[in-house]
Protein backbone atom coordinates (compact mmCIF):
# COMPACT_ATOMS: atom_id res chain seq x y z
CA UNK A 1 0.00 0.00 0.00
CA UNK A 2 1.20 3.51 -0.82
CA UNK A 3 2.53 5.68 1.97
CA UNK A 4 0.32 8.75 2.12
CA UNK A 5 0.62 11.58 4.65
CA UNK A 6 -2.28 14.05 4.87
CA UNK A 7 -1.78 17.44 6.52
CA UNK A 8 -5.04 18.63 8.09
CA UNK A 9 -6.00 21.51 10.34
CA UNK A 10 -7.82 24.83 10.33
CA UNK A 11 -6.78 27.63 7.93
CA UNK A 12 -3.58 29.57 8.56
CA UNK A 13 -1.79 27.15 10.87
CA UNK A 14 0.97 26.56 8.29
CA UNK A 15 -0.10 23.43 6.39
CA UNK A 16 1.09 24.70 3.00
CA UNK A 17 4.37 25.92 4.49
CA UNK A 18 5.10 22.42 5.81
CA UNK A 19 3.89 20.81 2.58
CA UNK A 20 6.24 22.97 0.53
CA UNK A 21 9.14 22.22 2.85
CA UNK A 22 8.54 18.46 2.61
CA UNK A 23 8.09 18.24 -1.15
CA UNK A 24 10.37 21.08 -2.26
CA UNK A 25 13.47 19.14 -3.23
CA UNK A 26 11.81 16.25 -5.08
CA UNK A 27 9.18 18.50 -6.64
CA UNK A 28 11.88 20.72 -8.08
CA UNK A 29 13.50 17.68 -9.68
CA UNK A 30 10.21 16.40 -11.13
CA UNK A 31 9.12 19.78 -12.46
CA UNK A 32 12.48 20.11 -14.11
CA UNK A 33 12.15 16.71 -15.78
CA UNK A 34 8.59 17.10 -17.02
CA UNK A 35 8.58 20.81 -17.69
CA UNK A 36 5.04 21.13 -16.35
CA UNK A 37 3.58 22.73 -13.26
CA UNK A 38 2.24 20.10 -10.89
CA UNK A 39 -0.94 20.07 -8.87
CA UNK A 40 0.31 21.55 -5.63
CA UNK A 41 -2.16 19.66 -3.44
CA UNK A 42 -0.15 16.47 -3.94
CA UNK A 43 3.60 16.15 -3.70
CA UNK A 44 6.29 13.54 -3.20
CA UNK A 45 8.78 13.45 -0.38
CA UNK A 46 11.31 11.14 1.21
CA UNK A 47 12.96 10.72 4.56
CA UNK A 48 15.80 8.35 5.43
CA UNK A 49 15.16 6.29 2.31
CA UNK A 50 11.37 6.04 2.69
CA UNK A 51 9.20 7.59 -0.02
CA UNK A 52 5.73 9.00 0.49
CA UNK A 53 3.01 11.18 -0.97
CA UNK A 54 2.00 14.31 0.93
CA UNK A 55 -1.49 15.83 0.64
CA UNK A 56 -2.01 19.48 1.54
CA UNK A 57 -5.71 19.38 2.40
CA UNK A 58 -5.73 23.14 3.03
CA UNK A 59 -5.62 23.66 -0.70
CA UNK A 60 -9.22 22.49 -0.80
CA UNK A 61 -10.51 24.95 1.78
CA UNK A 62 -11.44 28.34 0.44
CA UNK A 63 -13.56 31.14 1.79
CA UNK A 64 -14.51 31.97 5.33
CA UNK A 65 -14.43 29.72 8.36
CA UNK A 66 -18.22 29.21 7.99
CA UNK A 67 -17.66 26.92 5.03
CA UNK A 68 -14.81 25.16 6.80
CA UNK A 69 -16.87 22.52 8.57
CA UNK A 70 -18.53 21.52 5.33
CA UNK A 71 -15.14 21.21 3.71
CA UNK A 72 -13.95 18.88 6.47
CA UNK A 73 -16.80 16.56 5.71
CA UNK A 74 -16.05 16.37 1.99
CA UNK A 75 -12.57 16.58 0.42
CA UNK A 76 -10.63 16.74 3.66
CA UNK A 77 -12.48 13.65 4.87
CA UNK A 78 -11.55 11.86 1.65
CA UNK A 79 -7.88 12.79 2.07
CA UNK A 80 -7.95 11.49 5.64
CA UNK A 81 -9.53 8.27 4.36
CA UNK A 82 -6.71 7.84 1.83
CA UNK A 83 -3.92 8.63 4.29
CA UNK A 84 -1.71 6.16 6.13
CA UNK A 85 -0.63 8.87 8.60
CA UNK A 86 -2.45 12.11 9.45
CA UNK A 87 -0.62 15.23 10.58
CA UNK A 88 -3.11 17.31 12.54
CA UNK A 89 -1.58 20.76 12.57
CA UNK A 90 -2.19 23.46 15.17
CA UNK A 91 -0.56 26.81 15.79
CA UNK A 92 1.35 27.85 18.96
CA UNK A 93 0.80 31.54 18.19
CA UNK A 94 -2.99 31.33 18.40
CA UNK A 95 -3.15 28.45 20.91
CA UNK A 96 -6.03 26.03 21.37
CA UNK A 97 -9.00 27.07 19.26
CA UNK A 98 -12.62 25.77 18.93
CA UNK A 99 -11.86 24.59 15.38
CA UNK A 100 -8.91 22.57 16.71
CA UNK A 101 -11.28 20.87 19.12
CA UNK A 102 -13.71 20.14 16.28
CA UNK A 103 -10.90 18.61 14.25
CA UNK A 104 -9.70 16.59 17.23
CA UNK A 105 -13.18 15.14 17.64
CA UNK A 106 -13.19 14.04 13.99
CA UNK A 107 -9.69 12.57 13.84
CA UNK A 108 -10.14 10.75 17.14
CA UNK A 109 -12.72 8.55 15.43
CA UNK A 110 -10.29 7.45 12.73
CA UNK A 111 -8.49 4.18 13.20
CA UNK A 112 -5.14 5.42 11.93
CA UNK A 113 -2.12 7.23 13.36
CA UNK A 114 -2.69 10.93 14.05
CA UNK A 115 0.31 13.06 15.01
CA UNK A 116 -0.43 16.46 16.56
CA UNK A 117 1.92 19.03 15.07
CA UNK A 118 2.23 22.31 16.98
CA UNK A 119 3.54 24.68 14.35
CA UNK A 120 5.10 28.14 14.76
CA UNK A 121 7.13 26.96 17.77
CA UNK A 122 9.75 29.43 16.59
CA UNK A 123 11.29 30.13 19.99
CA UNK A 124 11.30 28.69 23.52
CA UNK A 125 8.19 30.64 24.63
CA UNK A 126 6.07 29.32 21.76
CA UNK A 127 7.66 25.92 22.18
CA UNK A 128 6.41 25.92 25.76
CA UNK A 129 2.90 26.89 24.60
CA UNK A 130 2.71 23.73 22.52
CA UNK A 131 1.92 21.92 25.82
CA UNK A 132 -1.62 23.40 25.61
CA UNK A 133 -2.39 20.92 22.86
CA UNK A 134 -2.10 17.93 25.19
CA UNK A 135 -5.65 18.94 26.16
CA UNK A 136 -6.80 17.65 22.76
CA UNK A 137 -6.27 14.15 24.13
CA UNK A 138 -4.45 12.88 21.06
CA UNK A 139 -1.15 11.94 22.68
CA UNK A 140 2.31 13.27 21.91
CA UNK A 141 2.77 16.77 20.50
CA UNK A 142 5.40 17.54 17.88
CA UNK A 143 6.46 21.19 18.13
CA UNK A 144 7.90 22.42 14.85
CA UNK A 145 8.61 25.58 12.92
CA UNK A 146 7.56 24.90 9.34
CA UNK A 147 9.13 28.24 8.46
CA UNK A 148 12.63 27.36 9.72
CA UNK A 149 12.38 23.57 9.61
CA UNK A 150 13.09 23.18 13.35
CA UNK A 151 11.58 19.99 14.75
CA UNK A 152 10.64 18.57 11.35
CA UNK A 153 13.33 15.87 11.57
CA UNK A 154 11.86 14.47 14.80
CA UNK A 155 8.39 14.61 13.25
CA UNK A 156 9.47 12.74 10.11
CA UNK A 157 11.29 10.12 12.19
CA UNK A 158 7.93 9.36 13.79
CA UNK A 159 5.96 9.53 10.50
CA UNK A 160 8.10 6.91 8.75
CA UNK A 161 7.70 4.46 11.66
CA UNK A 162 4.10 4.02 10.51
CA UNK A 163 4.93 2.92 6.94
P1 LIG B 1 -2.33 27.09 5.84
O1 LIG B 1 -3.51 27.96 5.64
O2 LIG B 1 -2.54 26.16 7.01
O3 LIG B 1 -1.87 26.39 4.61
O4 LIG B 1 -1.12 28.04 6.32
P2 LIG B 1 0.07 28.70 5.46
O5 LIG B 1 1.15 27.69 5.22
O6 LIG B 1 -0.48 29.40 4.30
O7 LIG B 1 0.65 29.72 6.54
C1 LIG B 1 -0.16 30.71 7.14
C2 LIG B 1 0.72 31.81 7.68
O8 LIG B 1 1.55 31.33 8.74
C3 LIG B 1 1.68 32.38 6.64
O9 LIG B 1 1.78 33.77 6.84
C4 LIG B 1 2.99 31.67 6.95
O10 LIG B 1 4.12 32.43 6.55
C5 LIG B 1 2.92 31.58 8.47
N1 LIG B 1 3.73 30.47 8.98
C6 LIG B 1 3.79 29.18 8.53
N2 LIG B 1 4.65 28.46 9.26
C7 LIG B 1 5.17 29.28 10.20
C8 LIG B 1 6.12 29.11 11.28
O11 LIG B 1 6.71 28.06 11.50
N3 LIG B 1 6.34 30.21 12.05
C9 LIG B 1 5.73 31.40 11.83
N4 LIG B 1 6.03 32.41 12.66
N5 LIG B 1 4.86 31.60 10.83
C10 LIG B 1 4.57 30.55 10.03
MG1 LIG C 1 -2.69 26.36 2.72
Automatic annotation (TrEMBL):
Record-annotated membrane-spanning stretches: none
Domain EngA-type G: 3-163
Domain of life: Bacteria
Binding site for GTP 1: 9-16, 56-60, 119-122
Record's subunit section: Associates with the 50S ribosomal subunit.
Family: Belongs to the TRAFAC class TrmE-Era-EngA-EngB-Septin-like GTPase superfamily. EngA (Der) GTPase family.
Function: GTPase that plays an essential role in the late steps of ribosome biogenesis.
Stated name of the protein: GTPase Der
Source species: Roseivirga seohaensis subsp. aquiponti
Coverage span on the entire protein: 1 to 163 of 435
Amino acid sequence: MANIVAIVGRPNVGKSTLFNRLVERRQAIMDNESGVTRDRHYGYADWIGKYFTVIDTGGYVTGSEDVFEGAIRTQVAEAMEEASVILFMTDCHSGLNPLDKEFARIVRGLKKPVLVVANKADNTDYHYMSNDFYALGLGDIFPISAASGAGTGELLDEVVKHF
